[in-house]
Every structure is written in C-alpha cells, then in structure tokens.
Amino acid sequence: MYFKPSILLSFEEDGIGKGSGRSIPGFDLHEALMKCSDTIDKFGGHSMAVGITIKKENFNEFKKEFEKIATQSHIEEIVPVINIDAKIDFNDINKNIVESLKQLEPFGEGNKMPIFAFKNLKIDSIRALSEGKHLKLTLKDNNTIINAIGFNIGNLAEEYRIGDKVDVAGVLEINTFNGVDNLQINIKDIMRAI
C-alpha cells in the first residue's frame, strides 16, 4: 500500500524476535541486512524477501541502522513501475482466454501474472465499496461492457465520473458471484485517456 520496504517482527517471551521482510524493486533488502548484520542473530533470503531473527535488546540499534540505510538509499524517490505484457481490446477477450492464462501458474516473484493495458474505455458506472476502500467500475468499449475492481483505490471514485474516458492496466480474471461467472479486470492502475 505504501510502496516501502517493510520488516515485521514478533517477539516471544524469551526476548527473541522472528519475522520476515518484503521489499520493493530498487531496494535490495538482503543487502541492507548485510550492512547491519552486527545487530541481527541470523537472516536469509534475497533482494525482495527475507527472514530474520533478532534479540529484543538489539532491536533499537537494528532499527536505527536499517532506517539509516533506507534513507541513504532514497527510497522515497523510487516510483512504482507496472510492466504491461500486452495491450488488448475487449473484443479479443473471452472466458476461454482468461481460463487459459491459468496454464501459466503458479504466479509469483519469478513468474508474474500477466498485466494488460486497455485503452480509451468509457466509464459506465463507478462507486466506492467497503466504506470507500475499493473502487468498483463497469467499463465500456463500443458495445462491450466489462466489470472492474480496484482494491485499495476507492478514493479515486471522487476523481472520475460516468462518461469519462480512461486507460486501465490490470489483470484479467473470472469473478464468480451467486454461481454466475463474469469476466473482470482487477485494476492495478487507472488514468484519464490521452
């Protein structure tokens, strides 16, 4: 949500904290831990994910060193990048094509879900869900309408109106509700069409 590297620790009664960390592209989490390894009992992982064990009495020193490394790395300047796999039109997608994407599984760090770009779509309906947390849309391309959901971007419901033209980057999926399957775009980013 915040696009920042994070480490979460849980301390047991014996004063030993165990946890894991996740990073963002552009900040090597494993390398950062190497630089402050004198405060850590043990750790392992790679640039994007780590496991860590640390004594409670070393935590404040670790935190200070780690935050200094993150600050020196200028993480606030790292901008999220969405890699688009293909631009497609609504006419080119159907349930069978979306089902066939499952053959590419399992998805993860080394095998990301395909992200598609959809250009110049008209907003047919728009609203926020879950007390403003999520964005729910129906998007129209000529006479074809598709549902779209944007998790944790509900605040954008105030920025767009019915009839606005937008470009969307997202993952194609099948949403099953009350036994009915519908194609849906899981929105990763949205902007006004240019």
Overall 3D shape: elongated
Distance between the termini: 26 Å
Q: Could you give the order of strands across the largest sheet?
A: 6-7-8-10-9
Helical proportion, percent range = 10-25%
Uncertain ranges: none
Largest sheet: 5 strands, mixed, barrel
- Total DSSP helices: 3
The pLDDT mean sits at 91
Q: Indicate the radius of gyration in whole angstroms.
A: 21 Å
**Beta-strand residue fraction:** 35-45%
Written as H for each helix and E for each strand, in order along the chain, the element string is EEHEEHEHEEEEE
Structural class: alpha+beta
Number of strands: 10
Structure write-up:
- This protein is an alpha+beta fold and 194 residues long.
- Helix content is 15%, strand content 42%.
- The protein contains three helices and ten strands, in the order E-E-H-E-E-H-E-H-E-E-E-E-E.
- The strands form two sheets. Strands 6-7-8-10-9 form a five-stranded mixed beta barrel.
- Strand 5, helix 3 and strand 6 form a beta-alpha-beta unit.
- The longest helix has 17 residues.
